[in-house]
Amino acid sequence: MDIAELLICGGSEVFAVDPEHPTDFVWHWDSADRTDIPEHLTDCFGSLDECKPVNGGSHVLITSSGGAVALIDKATQDVVFISAVANAHSADLLPGNRIIAAASHLEDKGDRLILFDIDRPEEALWSDDLPKGHGAVWDESRSLFWALSNTDIRSYTFRDWASDRPSLELVSSTELPEPGGHELSWADNETF
Question: Who has greater pLDDT, 187 or 163?
Fold first, then answer.
């Protein structure tokens, strides 16, 4: 597998490093330096949990357990989507200009999957229960979305996707061998 960059996030920052020269930071984004984050969300990006390349690497999707999700244009560093999501732990970009986020336990605002349209970041289009949600992965080859909760992994398909009120429908749920689901990502077939 040929990797062009490694993305690293923590605190309020995201870095891209050259894997051949790990001391070479080739890209850097810091929420503390941004003026395009709405004032009511400025404190939400102090504890980044996930940074995921999307759109062929031209954008970076970030989540923060501080309470927000954002899509960053890598070339310009502009925030092109931002929304409040309580205890956000994972997100992915879906077809049709949509973003889905997994929110983990936080009183009555977490434990959810939440679907957004990039052009309407303040409005949740759909949501569903996801106990201690920590994983969100789009599976383009199967046209399925995968979500990880504390106790199971779920697959979903799209419903009414071309409408203003799209939703996801549960296809399957598989219980984990033991509780504690925390990370979900792809592994290359040659890896295992």
Answer: 163
Q: Are 28 and 8 in contact (CB under 8 A)?
A: no
Provide the pairing of β-strand 48-54 with 167-175: unpaired
DSSP states of 125-192: EEEEE-TT--EEEEETTTTEEEEE-SSEEEEEEEESTTSSS-EEEEEEEEE-SSS---------TTT-
**Between residues 5 and 92, the one the model is more confident about:** 92
Residue 181's pLDDT is 87
pLDDT digits (tens, 9 = 90+) for 17-37: 999 998 889 999 999 999 999
Report which DSSP code applies to 164.
Answer: S
Of the chain, the percentage scoring pLDDT greater than 90 comes to: 81
Nearest to 113 by CA among 89, 80, 81: 89
Query: 110: helix, coil or strand?
Result: coil
Distances (CA, A) of 123 to 2, 36, 126, 147, 153: 38, 19, 9, 21, 26
Based on the number of CB atoms within 10 Å of its own CB, is 106 exposed (0-12), middle (13-18) or buried (19 or more)? Answer: middle
How many other CB atoms are found less than 10 A from the CB of residue 78?
12
Q: Exposed (0-12), middle (13-18) or buried (19+): which is 109, by Cβ within 10 Å?
A: middle
pLDDT at 44: 95
